[in-house]
């Protein structure tokens, strides 16, 4: 199977796993996360989807009660996000064809400034996805007693995915922190949010956008399942 097929297979398995999770078919989802991780493992070492695949598999293992295995997998995901950050620091990031006149003028007069803005955007996205993984790891290891660390995770997730990011709200709820969320706020599903963002992404950065927006955060359902399978 070539690299393009591996990427398509990873995405297909990932979306199927998300849908299985939404339907509370957790065992089926865990098998799909495992398959997605196997496909991602054949991609280049700096491919962001490897980090996402490890995160999702680790979270599913945690929910199933395989705590030690989950910790190891989530820790590997954390290491991979560092590799991804280094990749974003050096990758050539093209401008979008639909850029505004402001950005065209900025590119013409200050090309370095625009390049820095584009890179900062993707570094922020990488940091947000890494914060989701870090929060999952903290739950798996039981290291959830540091409010400042949790707040930093929340800030990184909101900076990457918006103030209404479901992953941030879950952490706020789990840590019993004050919530700034407005009543009536519509929170998109993981797949809906990914689809809304991926369609406007330049091809070169799709690996990061796909990986970051399809990195799954802890929910109360996952945590309840983990508590029924102490491992």
Tags for this entry?
231 residues; mainly alpha; 11 helices
- Overall, the morphology is globular
Main sheet summary: none
Structural class: mainly alpha
Classify the beta-strand content into a percent band.
under 5%
Average pLDDT: 86
Task: Report on this structure.
There is one protein chain. The chain has 231 residues and is mainly alpha-helical. It has one domain (3-228). It contains eleven helices and no strands. Helix 3 (48-63) packs antiparallel against helix 4 and helix 9 (190-198) runs antiparallel to helix 10 (206-213). The mean pLDDT is 86.
Can you describe this structure in just a few lines?
By secondary structure, the chain is mainly α.
What layout of secondary structure does this protein have?
Layout: H1 3-22, H2 26-40, H3 48-63, H4 67-90, H5 101-109, H6 111-141, H7 147-161, H8 166-174, H9 190-198, H10 206-213, H11 220-228
């Amino acid at each position: 199977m070539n690299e393009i097929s591996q990427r398509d297979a990873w995405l297909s398995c990932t979306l199927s796993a998300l849908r299985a999770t939404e339907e509370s078919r957790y065992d089926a989802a865990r098998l799909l996360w495992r398959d997605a991780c196997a496909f991602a493992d054949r991609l280049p070492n700096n491919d962001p989807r490897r980090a996402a695949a490890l995160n999702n598999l680790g979270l599913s293992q945690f929910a199933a009660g395989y705590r030690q295995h989950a910790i190891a997998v989530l820790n590997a995901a954390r290491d991979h996000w560092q590799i991804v950050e280094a990749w974003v620091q050096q990758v050539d990031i093209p401008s979008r064809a639909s850029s505004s006149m402001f950005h065209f003028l900025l590119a013409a007069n200050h090309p370095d400034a625009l390049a820095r803005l584009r890179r900062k955007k993707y570094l922020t996205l990488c940091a947000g996805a890494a914060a989701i993984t870090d929060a999952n790891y903290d739950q798996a290891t039981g290291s959830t007693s540091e409010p400042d660390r949790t707040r930093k995770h929340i800030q990184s997730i909101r900076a990457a995915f918006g103030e209404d990011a479901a992953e941030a709200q879950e952490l706020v709820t789990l840590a019993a922190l004050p919530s700034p969320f407005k009543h009536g706020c519509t929170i998109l599903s993981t797949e809906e949010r990914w689809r809304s963002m991926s369609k406007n992404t330049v091809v070169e950065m799709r690996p990061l956008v796909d990986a970051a927006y399809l990195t799954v955060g802890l929910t109360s359902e996952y945590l309840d399942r983990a508590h029924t399978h102490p491992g």
